[in-house]
User: Which sequence fits this backbone?
């Protein structure tokens, strides 16, 4: 059976009952003219353009990629693929891939050879180390490289250079997930499993537009909704997402008020005594404080703060408070909003006081945004120490130094690791003299772009950019290194529910492009980093050797990989860590038998004050939580720093759409995906549009105190008073290439966003700003270039033609027979 | 109320008010250090809240805690230390109630959007909503 997978991103239903296994459905897309029989090789991989980790095989014909096919036996996706999986691979073959290194000469980037480019980078590094020390060098990496690459980067940055300035763009997507888990459980590590979707009775999605960010898992929810004993959904989202349309209770709160709403849910849970007292007694500390803090947070109080009817809040509280199996998922609506960590922690609290943890269908999924965000956290490429080691714990640092065979004093730990936003501030001030950016595009993805562009363009800052294309950021660089990507190199990737997949090399990279691992290894060789016995610090040359090195680093840690190997992953598909010799099939759920990593000697973090970010002292942690239980951390609601006023009367949130990933470097180069959402748009509700005399397709200007952008207006059922702009659109496909055309109005959402971040997780706020909306030009028959299949669906369905992919978007789907309705 | 308690309440109230003033000064002096700026602003709110609660408690006990000197507006009282501040007219010390943070020199790199008006780039990008130092209500 074939279907237009742009028009129907989730594919055909295969209904199944609660507690049954999810039936498979194998999705295949082959390039036009390629018959299945003509495929010469199928090479195993997992998806790169979201955090779901859908397992697939890449079709190879005559040394070129020719399509993809889902893997039916894999635990994560059971053969299904989403639109970005089906079509995204085509970007690899774009004609504008970088094929040779570039260096800046007389203000222009010119082609050169690898030796010249790498020697330039190494020479500058040596200069800076000699003159100003390791603190003058910063590394900003991605959420899209492989585990082996992050680990290598972490080793060379920490023990080689000795810098504290190492972070990933996962700071923008998953930092709050990690921080919230550390606050509640003492250690990072996803408690739940995607399999909990098969068993849950209530699924509560907090700021998680699963239908667009994890399309395959949303198909799983749709399959359950179509089968017997379907789950009931609670959706907290200010936009009319597909999740909201299928929800039993939908709350659309004022953005920035998540803590108020969650405190009211906790208040109701405690007031009705829906508390699992045995669990609370056995496994938690801090219940009295939490109860006291939420005592005044009635639904009526929250209704006023959140602008949601109190009756709906009570209904939501009843839903999560009376079910026997609650699964909660959390994503950017919480993580990128005001009081991010405080809110995400309250979701953990809800599960802890209800005892909804470590059982099938009862769990928490603090989600990730990017495909290998999980790996940056494990490997320490997000600034934490590798293997979830605690930088404040001397024995953890000594243990890591032993693994690396260096002196403990080599590993910088005089201060907390520098987070990305602070790193860019240091670069702005000049204390960081070299910034090495791998696989990400801060000139589009960071807040307040005028500032970021000016900062990256500084003469005194030496910028190295390692990427596939000449991105907006690469255009401002001093050295550009052409990288190979997914399908052109080998490595592992771990998804949001700890499933590790092997992605193998299917084809050669274009021109002289090299795997990111090879680039880091080349740098390490040139810098001649040594361990304390004079042997090379980075002693591996191949991905598999790097993986084995990582296994040694992860041994005995929460993210133990010692039971995994490339061969095993090849045979078995996705396996969830921890995976040891004793547990070769991996671990489905954490915390099935109490809280395991919160003991003062074991925990990854002693926690932070949620309002100020001040680190908790080890002694204080030990006295508050001597037995290593889960911490119930209470938080009071505080008003966002920027609220609407007369001049900027709207709230502004940025976000994503189903068809694009990050800054469109790949998805914008794929016809099927690009045509589904070709240009930026802005969403407002019908009442606001009528009040301002605006209509569908009008060209409008969205302005904040930082800057402005112009886009066409889509009138939707979004919450009144709120504007939404997708953040994917930058300038690489405009005339200017790196910024707004001739100083005119911008196209990137981040022209408008504020430089402000959550005090605990340091994740920037993209969802809580104040903005003004004004008309620039009438629609004249045009409509907004926004998809109709998603949260950007028009308020009046007949006003806009439906999004469809046409012939080029037809993909095959073969469902397993015998699904039970 | 005993004299000792009244004296302690007065001292606490005065201390919280002073702390709020100091924190606002820090926040504004370091407007470009975003972490310092935002956290100091939040902490100033804590101190104001503490001061308000002391006033409330004291009033119930028949003691009036005077709102001593009002909090200075941005820039006021710290004119000596205006590191990097540019010379454009709108960035001079503004009058109470506080409404803007001082410019830190960024705008010297860019021309004002609308010369002669409040269109200075650095001012526009730093407008943040503040609470009035006297009543803790939002300022316009």
Assistant:
């Amino acid at each position: 059976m074939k279907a237009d997978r742009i028009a129907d991103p989730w594919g055909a239903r295969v209904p199944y009952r609660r507690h049954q296994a999810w039936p498979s459905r194998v999705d295949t897309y082959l390039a036009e003219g390629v018959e299945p029989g003509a495929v010469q090789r199928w090479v195993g991989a997992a998806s790169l353009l979201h955090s779901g980790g859908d397992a697939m095989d890449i079709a190879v014909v005559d040394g070129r990629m020719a399509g993809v096919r889902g893997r039916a036996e894999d635990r994560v996706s059971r053969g299904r693929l989403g639109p970005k999986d089906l079509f995204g691979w085509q970007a690899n073959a774009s004609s504008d891939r970088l094929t040779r290194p570039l260096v800046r000469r007389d203000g222009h980037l010119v082609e050169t050879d690898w030796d010249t480019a790498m020697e330039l980078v190494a020479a500058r590094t040596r200069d800076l180390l000699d003159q100003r020390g390791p603190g003058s060098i910063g590394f900003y990496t991605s959420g899209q490289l492989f585990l082996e690459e992050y680990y290598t980067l972490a080793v060379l940055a920490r023990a080689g250079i000795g810098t504290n300035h190492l972070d990933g763009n996962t700071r923008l997507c998953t930092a709050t997930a990690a921080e919230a888990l550390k606050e509640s459980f003492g250690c990072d590590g996803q408690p739940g499993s995607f399999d909990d979707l098969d068993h849950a009775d209530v699924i509560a999605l907090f700021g998680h537009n699963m239908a667009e960010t994890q399309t395959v898992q949303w198909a799983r929810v749709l399959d359950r909704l179509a089968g017997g004993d379907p789950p009931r959904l609670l959706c907290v989202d200010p936009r009319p997402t597909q999740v909201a349309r299928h929800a039993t209770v939908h709350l659309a709160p004022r953005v920035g008020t998540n803590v108020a709403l969650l405190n009211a849910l906790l208040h109701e849970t405690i007031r009705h005594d829906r508390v699992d007292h045995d669990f609370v007694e056995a496994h938690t500390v801090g219940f009295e404080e939490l109860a006291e803090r939420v005592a005044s947070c009635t639904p009526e109080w929250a209704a006023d703060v959140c602008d949601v009817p109190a009756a709906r809040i009570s209904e939501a509280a009843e839903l999560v408070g009376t079910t026997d199996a609650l699964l909660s998922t959390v994503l950017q609506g919480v993580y990128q909003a005001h009081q991010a960590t405080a809110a995400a922690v309250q979701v953990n609290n809800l599960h802890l006081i209800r005892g909804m943890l470590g059982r099938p269908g009862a769990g928490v999924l603090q989600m990730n945004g990017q495909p290998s965000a999980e790996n940056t956290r494990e490997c320490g490429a997000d600034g934490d120490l590798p293997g979830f080691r605690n930088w404040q714990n001397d024995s953890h640092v000594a243990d890591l130094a032993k693994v690396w065979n260096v002196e403990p004093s080599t590993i910088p730990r005089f201060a907390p690791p520098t987070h990305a936003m602070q790193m860019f501030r240091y670069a702005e001030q000049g204390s960081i003299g070299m910034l090495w950016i791998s696989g990400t595009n801060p000139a589009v993805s960071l807040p307040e772009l005028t500032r970021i562009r000016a900062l990256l363009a500084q003469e005194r800052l030496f910028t190295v950019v390692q990427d596939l294309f000449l991105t907006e950021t690469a255009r401002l660089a001093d050295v550009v290194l052409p990288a190979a990507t997914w399908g052109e190199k080998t490595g592992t990737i771990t998804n949001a529910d700890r499933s590790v997949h092997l992605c193998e090399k299917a084809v050669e990279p274009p021109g002289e492009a090299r795997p990111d691992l090879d680039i880091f290894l080349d740098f390490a060789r040139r810098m001649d980093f040594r361990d304390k016995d004079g042997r090379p610090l980075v002693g591996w040359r191949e991905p598999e050797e790097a993986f084995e090195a990582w296994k040694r680093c992860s041994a005995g840690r929460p993210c133990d990989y010692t039971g995994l190997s490339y061969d095993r992953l090849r045979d078995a598909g996705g396996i969830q860590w921890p995976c040891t010799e004793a547990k070769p099939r991996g671990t489905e759920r954490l915390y099935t038998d109490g809280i395991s990593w919160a003991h003062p000697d074991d925990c990854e973090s002693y926690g932070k004050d949620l309002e100020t970010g001040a680190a908790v002292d080890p002694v204080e942690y030990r006295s508050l939580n001597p037995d290593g239980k889960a911490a119930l951390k209470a938080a009071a609601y505080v008003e966002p720093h920027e609220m609407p006023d007369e001049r900027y009367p709207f709230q502004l949130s940025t976000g994503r759409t189903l068809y694009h990933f990050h800054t469109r470097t790949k998805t914008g180069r794929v016809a099927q995906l690009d045509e589904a959402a070709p240009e930026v748009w802005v969403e407002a509700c019908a009442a606001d549009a009528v009040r301002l005399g605006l209509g569908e397709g009008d060209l409008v200007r969205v302005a904040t105190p930082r800057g402005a952008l112009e886009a066409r207006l889509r009138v939707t059922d979004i919450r009144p008073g709120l504007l939404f702009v997708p953040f994917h659109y930058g300038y690489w496909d405009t005339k200017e290439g790196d910024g707004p055309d001739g100083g005119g109005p911008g196209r990137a959402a981040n022209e408008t966003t504020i430089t402000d971040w959550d005090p605990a997780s340091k994740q920037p706020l993209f969802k809580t700003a104040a903005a003004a909306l004004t008309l620039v030009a009438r629609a004249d028959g045009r409509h907004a270039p926004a998809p109709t299949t998603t949260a950007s669906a028009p308020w009046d369905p007949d006003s806009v033609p439906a999004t469809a992919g046409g012939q080029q978007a037809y993909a095959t789907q073969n469902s397993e027979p015998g699904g039970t309705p | 109320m005993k004299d000792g308690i009244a004296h302690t309440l007065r001292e606490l109230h005065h201390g919280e008010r002073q702390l709020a003033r100091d924190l606002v000064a820090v926040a504004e002096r370091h407007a470009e250090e975003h972490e310092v700026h935002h956290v100091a602003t939040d902490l100033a709110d804590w101190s104001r809240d503490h001061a308000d609660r002391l006033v409330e408690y004291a009033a119930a006990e028949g003691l009036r805690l005077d709102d001593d000197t009002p909090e200075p507006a941005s820039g006021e009282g710290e004119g000596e230390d205006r590191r990097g501040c540019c010379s454009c007219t709108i960035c001079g010390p503004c009058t109470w109630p506080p409404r803007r943070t001082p410019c830190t020199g960024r705008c010297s790199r860019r021309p004002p959007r609308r010369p002669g008006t409040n269109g200075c780039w650095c001012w526009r990008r730093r407008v943040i909503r503040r609470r009035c130092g006297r009543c803790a209500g939002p300022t316009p």
Residues 96 and 469 of chain A are 7 Å apart (CA to CA). DSSP finds 26 helices and 29 strands in chain A.
